[in-house]
Amino acid sequence: MSVTEVELPPIFCPLEPGIHSRVRDIEARAEKWVRSSGMGGDEELAWIVASHSADFFARFAPTADADRLLVAALWVYWGFGFDDARCDNGPLSADPGAFAALAGRVQRAVEAPSAASASEPYIPALKDIVGRFRAFGGPAQLRRFAVAHRAWLSGVTWQIGNASRGHMPDLDEFLAMRLLSSGGEPTFAMLELATGVEVPGREMHRPVVRALTEMAIAIAALDNDRHSLRKELSRGHTDQNVYTVLMRHQDLSVQEAVDAATRLRDRVMLRFLDVQERVLPQAGEELRHYLSGLRYGVRGNAEWGLRVPRYLSLGHVPGGLDDTPLEWAQRPATDDRSPLRLPAVAWWWDEDLLSR
Asked: Which of 5, 87, 166, 355 maximizes the CB count within 10 A of its CB?
């Protein structure tokens, strides 16, 4: 099936959109930082800039302090660059042992102000970002980000390990891995750093809040697989995404996999909406702010992904954001609210989740 023959249905996302009023100023400041960061050559930096990561995170935290939002956006630019250069491409993308060694050095740069590396250009840039976080973040916020960052690197290592041995995970393993490798953990952990609103541990560490965070990550990750599908098809890539998993293990065509993945994603969205609606009335002010960020993030990720050259460009020189009006699905692809029979995520439907 060719790229043009795949029919991608509109995204169901009945969540409120938002974007920071100073996004263009923040983007200009971020672009200047990227071009002076030393992370790569001109072409590599051009693709990092074309991720429009300031626009991305400005949709997650539309009321954040502009200076704090800038630093969060810098990490997203850094993350896309690191992902492209060290995770998805290059010699490390097929060598889990070598990548794991690099991941350890990268993580130490997050956790230790004195960590150094003369041989990896992405580490000094990361140290600059995390140093800025330390200048305004509280201890709990910084620790939550560091833990989330480690989770992301562990997921990427898992993914590279699968690729190196030609292993295509089944749907349950894939979702468990994708919750980590998609980068959603550190991205949502930055909500507290960008806004300055810290959720008390007694609320943040409730299982129901963890479930909502995981559901938001899963929805965004599945949306990103959708966003990148046409580019993956155009390049003949057959690596791990929800479509290749479904095609391999359920013997589906590309279009059948698209339809099945859409239903899967919408079932998670329906559960996310149901649980949030029941948690919000009992939530404290700080938790309500965080849950609002999850909603903005899911919607913002979908909207950004439908406009950004990272997904829309099929290998051409990157450009600006597409400003074509977007079409959204008016109803989910399924009304099925029953639990997914996948052990990695079935607990999101536990009957006593809301009381925990």
From this structure: 87
